[in-house]
Design brief:
This protein is an alpha+beta fold and 533 residues long. The chain contains 20 helices and 17 strands. Helices cover 48% and strands 16% of the residues. The strands form four sheets. A five-stranded mixed beta sheet has the order 2-7-6-5-4, sandwiched between helices. A five-stranded antiparallel beta sheet has the order 9-8-12-11-10, sandwiched between helices. Strands 14-15-13-16-17 form a five-stranded mixed beta sheet, sandwiched between helices.
């Protein structure tokens, strides 16, 4: 009998970005993977339904026959190594035509290591052949709550550490349910007046620190019936609570024992749920980072999240003047919350010292002022609540996910210009800083390529460093003021005659002729470079 297989999504979450990257998934990420096959370069390209084919030795375009054969056979995915980033485009196109997922394998990854890992994951605890384990039989948390209700003869709810209801049992008689239970279910969270009483009685303290059940006496004056509770814990880490309220009938004699077992099963489920959520977040962030950097095509992210490839999108980029990890984490969280409140599908990826937000599926005709307002809200919140000065750059609005790297590149250009000074803005789009961006990029070119610089101006800045003079600064101020001596002198807080002397002295020392337009233009650029040494 053919096994259902492990969804490709789960395999990718387990393998993770350090080993493989998803390049294409034409049939989505729920394609079942049933086995792993090694395709030797000496063998004819073959595959079987549901296989993950490891195309050993077939680098780059040499893997095209393996892709086509895998598609014809109904394989789940093909894994290849790439010699150069540009090879991915041709392979992604071939994978889409063949209808098979494409994974790129890190060059340093050993094939036998990937083979053993993939086989272990497919055959491991997440695989269908472990459906007989107690954790699996318990089902989801609602099923567990119903099972506990049967075993304890009570009315059950399962909550997280913030008293938010995760699941609850069914109750055939609404008269059995007390006020705390009713309000918790209706609001999906325990009401604060009741929670404060439980804190006052030490119930929560016990649940956080003990593995034993605790009884809560009835309080008719508060509308509370008798109940039992037990903390759900993973080691010393609290995960939540199971509550059992007594209904019209007394709780079962062994209700305490049933709660102990239920707490252990619930802990396994909650830990697994957290891991799955964490893995899903990692996969999403990996796909988003690949798209922003241009190393992964848009189809993978679109398939994973169900996004429309052809709707408008834009990228916002944020940079903070801090390197503290805690502050950076807080800033990232703040950006995430504020952006999500404005755009449901917003995605966030920290890359090096910047935080990027992708806004996919934008409404047609969304005004730039609207996006600018969203970014300004984030900057203001970071300043007011965290004391962190942020800069925000708005990339171009592009006509689909395929051009997201272009939007990100424009946002980076803007942030680079803002970071070099001369831009007194917290939030900017290219239209606000076009000249500053272009001058900034010219300066970067001069910085990288010493052969483009005038050695006489380099000598002038070196003279200033050796003698503690300010000749280069004075020449630049005079040029910026278009030769207006008094304006430049006021900017430097010196006498006009002092400025005239410094400009003449600079010409004498270097031999530059500031009456020549080309030399003035080059001086205005080169003297803006940061001093060397």
């Amino acid at each position: 009998m053919t096994t259902p297989g492990l969804p490709l999504r789960r395999l990718l979450m387990s393998l993770g970005e350090p080993l493989v990257e998803l390049q294409a998934a034409p049939h989505g990420l729920d394609v079942p993977v049933r086995d792993v096959a090694i395709l030797d370069p000496e063998d004819p390209p073959t595959a079987a339904t549901g296989e993950l084919v490891l195309a050993i030795g077939a680098r780059g375009r040499a893997a095209l026959p393996a892709l086509r054969a895998a598609g014809r056979a109904g394989a789940a995915a093909v894994a290849v190594k790439l010699d150069a980033p540009g090879q991915a485009d041709a392979l992604r196109e071939a994978a889409a035509e063949a209808g098979v997922a494409l994974l790129s394998v890190r060059r340093e990854t050993r094939w036998e290591h990937l083979d053993s890992l993939a086989r272990a994951i497919i055959a491991g605890p997440d695989a269908p052949d472990t459906a007989g384990t107690p954790e699996h039989n318990a089902g989801d948390l609602f099923s567990l709550a119903q099972t506990v209700a049967v075993l304890t003869n009570g009315i059950v709810s399962i909550e997280d550490t913030s008293s938010r209801v995760l699941a609850y049992s069914r109750s055939s008689d609404s008269d059995e349910v007390d006020d705390l239970r009713r309000l918790s279910i209706l609001g999906w969270q325990g009401p604060e007046p009741y929670l404060s009483k439980l804190r006052e009685w030490g119930i929560f303290q016990h649940l956080r620190t003990s593995d034993a059940p605790i009884a809560v006496d009835p309080h008719p004056e508060l509308g509370l019936r008798r109940r039992l509770a037990i903390g759900i814990r993973a080691g010393a880490q609290p995960l939540g609570t199971i509550w059992v309220q007594e209904g019209a009938q007394p709780l079962a004699p062994l209700a305490d024992q049933a709660l102990v077992g239920a707490a252990r099963v619930a802990a396994a489920q909650l830990v697994r749920r957290r891991r799955e959520l964490s893995a899903d977040v990692r996969l999403t962030r990996t796909l988003l980072t690949g798209l922003l950097e241009g190393s992964t095509g848009p189809q993978s992210l679109a398939t994973h999240l169900g996004l429309d490839l052809h709707r408008p999108a834009t990228v916002l980029a944020y940079s903070a003047r801090t390197t503290e990890a805690l502050t950076r984490s807080e800033v990232t969280g703040l950006i995430s919350v504020h952006t999500a409140a404005r755009h449901r599908s917003a995605l966030l990826a920290p890359i090096e010292s910047r935080v990027y937000v992708l806004l996919p599926e934008l409404p047609p005709g969304l005004a730039m002022t609207t996006v600018r307002g969203w970014a300004q809200e984030v900057v203001a919140a970071a300043r007011d609540h965290l004391g962190v000065p942020l800069r925000a750059a708005i990339g171009s609005t592009v006509d689909g996910l395929a051009r997201v790297p272009d939007s990100r590149a424009q946002a980076d250009r803007i942030l680079d210009a803002m970071g070099r000074g001369g831009v007194d803005l917290e939030v900017a789009a290219l239209i606000d800083v076009q000249a500053e961006v272009l001058v900034s990029e010219m300066l970067a070119l001069l910085q990288e390529r010493g052969g483009l610089r005038d050695p006489r101006l380099t000598a002038l800045t070196a003279y200033d460093r050796r003698h503690g003079t300010r000749l280069a600064e004075s020449v630049l101020a005079w040029l910026d003021a278009l030769g207006e001596v008094r304006v430049a002198a006021d900017a430097l807080h010196i006498h006009p005659n002092t400025l005239r002397y410094r400009v003449r002295r600079a010409e004498q020392l270097t031999g530059i002729d500031l009456t020549q337009p080309q030399q003035r233009l080059l001086a205005m650029l080169q003297l803006r470079l940061p001093p060397e040494g």
